[in-house]
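Retro notes - structure team

What went well: the batch runner handled both jobs without manual restarts.
What didn't: labels got mixed up in the shared folder, which is why I'm recording both outputs here explicitly, each with its sequence directly above its tokens.

Job 1
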Amino acid sequence: MIRDFQNSINDSRQLRSLHHHCAEQLKLPGEYSDLLRMSVVYCMSAFDKLIHDLVIYGMVEIFTGRRQAPSKYLKEAISLGNHLELINCSVPPPEIIFEGIVRNKLSHQCFMDPKKLADALSLVWLENHKWQVISDTMGRNQQQVVKELRNIYQRRNAIVHETDKDPSTNQKMPILTIDSERIENFILELGETIYRLVR
């Protein structure tokens, strides 16, 4: 799980390296900043997948009795069809069926926004002050960490949904190599911190 996340962040770094190679070393004609935008999207996709994996893994651990259930987990609803599937299964084992149910239930949800992220972690993590603990572990200010993630999430949305264009000018928002690198480093640190705390 964590290795997949780190490898995906490395894929993002490769895009940044490709941008540097084309634009700075070879000085090829054309605009290569979209490679930096792609690296932002890769980072956030990797982060979202990590959170999904942590939550699914944690919910299966609770289901099998290996982890204590937070109140949000106990209030989570599944369909009667899912319930019947669970009580009637023997092959594959119920935890495999349960994992599929949870994976399907969460598949359309996005956990990149700070509020939604904390809400998702509430399914598997008993900690009440999630962002405070995460920020303290990172050695940073809570408001700054939350704001940084929210800003990156908004930029990712602008890239994915609005081609990163300023609505007033219809020109692409500027993005620099240092922006991409800062985002990679922050998301890597945040993801690794959450993994250590929650796993």
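Job 2
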Amino acid sequence: MKRRSWLLGTAGAAAAVAGVTWQQWRERAGGSGGRGAKAEQGVNTSAGTDASTDASAGSPPWASRFDTPDGGTLALASFKGQPLLLNFWATWCPPCIKEMPELDRFAAAFAKRSGSVLGLAVDNPTAVRQYLARSPVSYAIGLAGFDGTDLSRRLGNTTGALPFTVLFDRSGRVVERKLGET
């Protein structure tokens, strides 16, 4: 059992290092590489989805739209006017996976107070779909792809680490930010 835990921990750490290294390389290379790369990562790149203007003030980027694991589209504007817990996560992030059942329970209780939980997966869409098939959640999931790291940074995640959670009030103001497991 100890060996298995050690192997899982080592694999998780290696994945985290690989993700950070890839992100640093991408930043030095000068960005994400255009529309094709964004489409592969699950970010909806249709016109009018410039998140930089809204998010620069720390408010939700209401114009953003994300593909969903089931093939639909999720508009962030559909959460406007209600409290929103926005959680950035990835399948390769052990603390992210560990907190998902807790977030699922919270989502049910928060909905009774007219609040919503939205998970933005900073990951490969195929990996997200496979994970959710094994471990479904009741709250909304958007496929932010690796561009989700940029969005989380604009919302206050200076390191780009995961998980990262932001709580917005009804007017879209940041109430709380949390880097790490909730």
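One thing worth noting from job 2: DSSP finds six helices and seven strands in the chain.
We'll revisit the folder naming next retro.
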